[in-house]
């Protein structure tokens, strides 16, 4: 036994020497920069391009988890070892980073370097980087969803490809005709695929809001919001053109939670799907897909949900001045052209979406629908958020109620009323906790603080 | 009652009825085992088959791929530094297993075989630390790693995991079953506790050590959260972190995840097959004890 | 004389573990105890304060906390089944059968695989229509004509459960309130997780522990019992079971600890705590509070409540263990 332990120890020491030897040397004379973002082929190309354009730097990726990935940056920054740059996915994440004091206010730095963010970036995406008129994050891309169509399935059904503008009534009729049933009468191919987490999109499409404009109240129980959610529910349970959770689980042999719809659509289980240009990052891997894109149906309101990443510099990074070069890179032509070419959504800088290469990517001549993507961004609006409640807490509450709607367990108006009430209770709790918010809240509402 | 028992098989008298009896029991156990094994195996066969499918076909119901895409496995190696992640995972888990078995066995010996005042109280304190939810220790431990400059290093992954109340508890339970006459005899012969530990107790605890070894290796090999926040450099990443690449916000490459998972399991199966013999060898060692 | 000598030796043997312990566990534990009485929040705008027991008071009024506690307890219902199954399997697998290595490895396979792969596997098994489980259930429903029977009696028809998508459960627990309602009676996500847990655990670590325990039983004891003419059940009752007492004690204690702390991995990779929060356990709630909602102080308070619960249950186990298992 003693001998066994001794031998194991020696082997492990030997392995350690080997492991230590295999350590790649950092490129000499280069300034290291660390970027926390999700790991994927697009991101790696973006890094390679930066390192090529800026040979003085050695930018590396530090992956974050694909769901709920803020813990890494928060924890690292708390211990004083945060990355140099990191990404925020949406206004509520930006808010969390700003409020925990780790996002660097780059308003003046950008101005000094002649970057006019508000003049150059798509307006819809500005809220992912700006908080109270100060710039903290640089929009890295912008996404606005539209309806993907699988042309082969349209051809098989003998339907013409839809063209915008069109209405929801037309959409529903078309989708019904695109349902394909099997011998037992079960729908095996759906007219429309849509992730349930798209519900904020529908609220926006129907002119509703999650929060009041000043963020002091959750208004998800407004008639517009209720109508939107009711509509989504009806797509599943009344019109039967969108898979219910049970349908979805039935047609999936695999596929995941959340990212399911892309894979179902790629596998030809739906003729239309609600999604963004960034789906191409995955859909290009599917062989023989024949795709088209059409604007989301709309009536008088023409508002679509705009979302995207914003890159933030760590305020405590010793290399934050160097990190600025990475943001400037994101403002430049090479990066934005790369984003467009990769189809990592759309370039956040307006003018790079007006190049011939954007409209017709020579590597992907079949993608003849890029004009649609550019067109819908003009009508984009950023997610609602409230400074008076933690975005994640609110989402937990809202999703709980929406889960019950999704499985048709609770009537929509009641679920929305309960959701609004619970979020508003949470707002009250947050005010209790944070005096600075309390002051702001009473200033906005004009109410006196009850003592 | 179908319960069988070790050691009874050979001990039965060899007359005809006993032979029949044995035969019948043998078959019954086999049928039952095969049935259960199938329920365990089918999902894994299906996972292996899925790892050869194309991205479209992964979503289809047919279990057998229409075209066998062996290149999925190559793709995993091409797209990420899978070999390096492999090495790191095994290397780190091996160190942790070694250290944990050693420190736990020593502590367990002190708790199970030595007599000292306050022993059970100290042991209960040990046990209590097992009950503290790990999440809340994350922040102080992480800060500690930063202070000790163990961030982004093998040591940061190995050292904190090398001390385990679980392992101590487990081995203590094993050592308790060893007859006390053995080490008393050794002590009368003038052996020091250190000698008794290595020459008497450790060999008799082999089954426990192997069990703990398997648990520790497995637990560490699959750990996700700690490496995720501790490691920054690509060359130090472990398999679970590396596999994030296939499961991103842009969608999931399910076939590659399956291929990677199949490869992920292989070292564990090898380890298990090699190690499980030693659990059984305890049967022979048992004879020594009487 | 001998005692003092052994105390010194014991210290020597404990030292490596004690050092590691002091640094990586004791310190952080005290730290977390301290912050549980603070309002520590990762947002800088929330000024750090000592707030005594306010976190704990708030926790009493936190309905989610109670709902998630119930979820945690509910998910532990599979533990006794899993332990009994492991014991049975270990006894069967301790025989010298041909191909025993293959069996052991197969039964241990589920423990090898973790995370995404396992999640995808089980999602497929729980497929409401094509999954193996429901295919079997539907077959039984059809062949027994249960549907006709229920409809003839004026019922609404029986259908196979939708498993991971459903908030139903065996006890009929409501989703939003702490009460039992008939509409929730059935099989749902929580039951799916219990079944999966049993499937994973039955041939897993506990089986291995029992296997090691069984192989440590001196064959003489069994032989002696056989000479006395004891049957298999009698041998099990009088020899095997008492001899396995320390192992059983260990497994029971660890299963309870694991169960109370459990559900984190499943929730993180498989269900994200849903549908409608029904698979959120206390440990996942702690994670959410700390790393998504940044209320570190509150999360620490939650942890200490969980710790207390585990401590009390372990002490009860300990007492019972002393009585029942002679240990």
General description of the model:
- The complex is a heterotrimer of chains A (451), B (290) and C (327).
- Chain A is of the alpha/beta class.
- Chain A has helices at 2-21, 41-53, 70-78, 91-99, 107-112, 117-120, 151-157, 168-178, 199-205, 223-237, 245-251, 260-266, 280-283, 320-331, 333-342, 356-359, 370-377, 391-406, 412-433, 435-445; strands spanning 31-37, 57-63, 85-89, 130-131, 134-135, 137-139, 143-144, 146-150, 180-181, 187-193, 270-275, 291-294, 304-307, 309-313, 380-382.
- Chain A folds into 2 domains: 31-142 and 308-353, Periplasmic binding protein-like II (D-Maltodextrin-Binding Protein, domain 2, 3-Layer(aba) Sandwich), CATH 3.40.190; 144-305 and 384-443, 3-Layer(aba) Sandwich (D-Maltodextrin-Binding Protein, domain 2).
- The termini of chain A are far apart.
- The model of chain A has no long low-confidence stretch (mean pLDDT 89).
- In chain B, strand 1 (247-248) and strand 2 form a beta hairpin.
- Chain B has helices spanning 8-11, 16-50, 71-79, 82-112, 119-130, 134-147, 154-158, 165-176, 180-188, 193-204, 206-221, 225-230, 239-242, 254-289, and strands at residues 247-248, 251-252.
- The longest helix of chain B is centred in the last third of the chain and has 36 residues, at 254-289.
- A two-stranded antiparallel sheet of chain B has the order 1-2.
- Chain B has 14 helices and 2 strands.
- The mean pLDDT of chain C is 82.
- Chain C has a single domain, classed as MetI-like (MetI-like fold), CATH 1.10.3720.10.
- The longest helix of chain C is centred in the N-terminal third of the chain and has 34 residues, at 2-35.
- In chain C, helix 13 (245-261) packs antiparallel against helix 16 (296-324).
Structural class of chain A: alpha/beta
Q: Would you report the number of β strands of chain B?
A: 2
Q: Gyration radius of chain A, to the nearest Å?
A: 24 Å
Residue runs with pLDDT of under 50 for 5 or more positions of chain B: 1-15, 281-290
CATH C-level of the largest domain in chain B: Mainly Alpha
| Principal-axis shape of chain B | globular
Q: Given the helix and strand composition of chain B, which structural class is it?
A: mainly alpha
Task: Give the number of helices of chain B.
Answer: 14
Strand content of chain A: 5-15%
Q: What's the β-strand tally of chain A? A: 15
- The CATH H-level superfamily of the largest domain in chain B is MetI-like
Largest sheet of chain A: 5 strands, mixed
Tally of domains of chain B: 2
Strand order in space, largest sheet of chain A = 2-1-3-14-6
Give the overall silhouette of chain A. globular
- Average pLDDT confidence of chain A is 89
């Amino acid at each position: 036994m003693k001998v066994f332990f001794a031998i194991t120890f020696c082997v492990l020491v030997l392995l350690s020497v080997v492991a230590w030897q295999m350590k790649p040397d950092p490129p000499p004379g280069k300034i290291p920069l660390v970027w926390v973002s999700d790991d994927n082929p697009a991101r790696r190309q973006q890094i390679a391009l930066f390192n090529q354009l800026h040979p003085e730097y050695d930018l590396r990726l530090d992956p974050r988890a694909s769901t709920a990935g803020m813990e890494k940056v928060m924890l690292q920054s708390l211990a004083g070892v945060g990355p140099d740059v990191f990404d925020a996915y949406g206004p509520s994440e930006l808010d969390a980073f700003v409020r925990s004091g780790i996002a660097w206010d780059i308003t003046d730095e950008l101005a000094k370097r002649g970057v006019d963010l508000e003049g150059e970036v798509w307006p819809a995406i500005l809220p992912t980087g700006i908080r109270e008129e100060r710039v903290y994050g640089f929009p890295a891309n912008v996404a606005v969803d539209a309806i993907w169509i699988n042309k082969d399935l349209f051809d098989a059904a003998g339907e013409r490809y839809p063209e915008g503008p069109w209405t929801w009534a037309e959409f529903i009729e078309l989708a019904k005709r695109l349902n394909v049933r099997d011998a037992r009468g079960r729908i095996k191919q759906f007219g429309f695929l849509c992730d349930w987490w798209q519900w904020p999109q529908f609220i926006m499409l129907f002119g509703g809001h999650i929060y009041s404009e000043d963020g002091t109240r959750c208004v998800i129980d407004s008639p517009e919001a209720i109508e939107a959610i009711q509509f989504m529910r009806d797509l599943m349970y009344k019109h039967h053109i969108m898979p219910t959770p049970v349908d979805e689980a039935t047609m999936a042999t695999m596929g995941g939670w959340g990212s399911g719809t892309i894979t179902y659509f790629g596998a030809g289980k739906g003729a239309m799907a609600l999604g963004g240009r960034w789906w191409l990052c995955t859909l290009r891997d599917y062989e023989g897909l024949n795709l088209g894109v059409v604007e989301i149906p709309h009536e008088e309101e023409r508002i679509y949900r705009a979302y995207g990443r914003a890159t933030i510099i760590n305020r405590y990074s010793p290399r934050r001045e160097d990190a600025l070069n990475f943001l400037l890179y994101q403002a430049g032509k090479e990066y934005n052209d790369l984003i467009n070419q990769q189809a990592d959504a759309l370039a956040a800088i307006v003018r790079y979406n007006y190049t011939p290469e954007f409209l017709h990517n020579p590597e992907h001549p079949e993608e003849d629908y890029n004009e649609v993507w550019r067109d819908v961004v003009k009508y984009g609006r950023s997610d609602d958020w409230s400074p008076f409640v933690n975005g994640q807490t609110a989402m937990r509450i809202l999703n709980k109620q929406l889960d019950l709607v999704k499985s048709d367990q609770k009537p929509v108006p009641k679920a929305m009323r309960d959701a609004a009430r619970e979020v508003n209770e949470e707002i009250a709790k947050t005010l209790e906790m944070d005096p600075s918010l309390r002051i702001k809240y009473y200033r906005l509402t004009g109410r006196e603080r009850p003592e | 009652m179908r319960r069988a028992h070790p050691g009874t098989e050979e001990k039965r008298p060899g007359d005809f009825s006993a032979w029949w009896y044995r035969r019948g029991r043998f078959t019954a156990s086999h049928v039952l085992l095969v049935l259960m094994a199938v329920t365990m195996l089918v999902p894994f066969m299906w996972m292996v088959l899925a790892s050869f499918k194309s991205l479209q076909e992964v979503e289809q119901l047919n279990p057998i791929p229409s075209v066998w895409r062996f290149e999925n496995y190559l793709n995993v190696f091409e797209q990420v530094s899978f070999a390096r992640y492999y090495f790191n995972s095994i290397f780190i888990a091996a160190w942790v297993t070694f250290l944990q078995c050693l420190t736990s066995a020593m502590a367990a010996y002190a708790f199970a075989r030595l007599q000292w005042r306050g022993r059970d109280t100290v042991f209960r304190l040990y046990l209590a630390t097992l009950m503290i939810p790990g999440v809340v220790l994350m922040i102080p431990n992480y800060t500690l790693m930063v202070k000790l400059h163990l961030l982004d290093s093998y040591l940061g992954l190995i050292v904190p995991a090398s001390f385990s109340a679980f392992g101590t508890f487990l081995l203590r339970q094993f050592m308790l079953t060893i007859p006390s006459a053995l080490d008393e005899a050794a002590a009368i012969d003038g052996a020091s506790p250190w000698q008794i530990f290595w020459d008497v107790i450790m060999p008799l605890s082999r089954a426990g050590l192997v069990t703990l070894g398997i648990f520790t290796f497995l637990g560490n090999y699959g750990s996700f959260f700690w490496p995720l926040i501790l490691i920054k450099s690509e060359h130090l990443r472990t398999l679970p972190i590396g596999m994030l690449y296939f499961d991103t916000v842009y969608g999931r490459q399910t076939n590659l995840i399956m291929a990677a998972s199949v490869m992920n399991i292989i070292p564990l199966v090898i380890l298990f097959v090699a190690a499980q013999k030693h659990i059984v060898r305890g049967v022979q060692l048992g004879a020594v004890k009487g | 004389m001998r005692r003092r000598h052994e105390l010194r030796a014991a210290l020597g043997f404990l030292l490596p573990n004690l050092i590691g312990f002091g640094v990586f566990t004791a310190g952080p534990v005290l730290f977390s105890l301290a912050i549980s009485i603070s309002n520590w929040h990762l947002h800088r705008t929330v000024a750090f304060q000592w707030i005594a027991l306010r976190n704990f008071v708030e926790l009493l009024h936190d309905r989610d906390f109670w709902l998630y506690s119930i979820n945690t307890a509910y998910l532990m219902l599979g533990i006794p089944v899993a332990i009994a199954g492991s014991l049975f399997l270990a006894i069967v697998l301790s025989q010298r059968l041909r191909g025993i290595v293959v069996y052991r490895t197969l039964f241990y396979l589920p423990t090898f695989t973790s995370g995404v792969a396992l999640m995808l596997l089980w999602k497929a098994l729980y497929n409401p229509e094509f999954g193996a489980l429901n295919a079997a259930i539907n077959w039984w429903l059809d062949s027994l004509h249960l549907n006709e029977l229920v409809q003839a009696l004026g019922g609404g028809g029986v259908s196979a459960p939708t498993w991971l998508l459903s908030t139903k459960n065996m006890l009929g627990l409501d989703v939003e309130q702490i009460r039992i309602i008939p509409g929730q009676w059935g099989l749902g996500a929580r039951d799916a997780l219990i079944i999966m847990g049993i499937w994973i655990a039955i041939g897993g670590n506990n089986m291995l522990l029992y296997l090691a325990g069984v192989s440590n039983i001196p064959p003489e004891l069994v032989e002696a019992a056989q000479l006395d003419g004891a049957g298999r059940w009698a041998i099990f009752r009088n020899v095997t079971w008492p001899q396995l007492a320390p192992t059983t004690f260990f497994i029971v204690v660890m299963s309870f600890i694991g169960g109370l702390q459990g559900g984190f991995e499943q929730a993180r990779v498989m269900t994200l705590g849903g549908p409608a929060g029904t698979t959120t356990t206390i440990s996942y709630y702690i994670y959410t509070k700390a790393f998504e909602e940044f209320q570190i102080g509150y999360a620490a308070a939650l942890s200490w409540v969980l710790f207390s619960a585990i401590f009390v249950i372990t002490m009860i186990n300990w007492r019972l263990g002393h009585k029942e298992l002679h240990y």
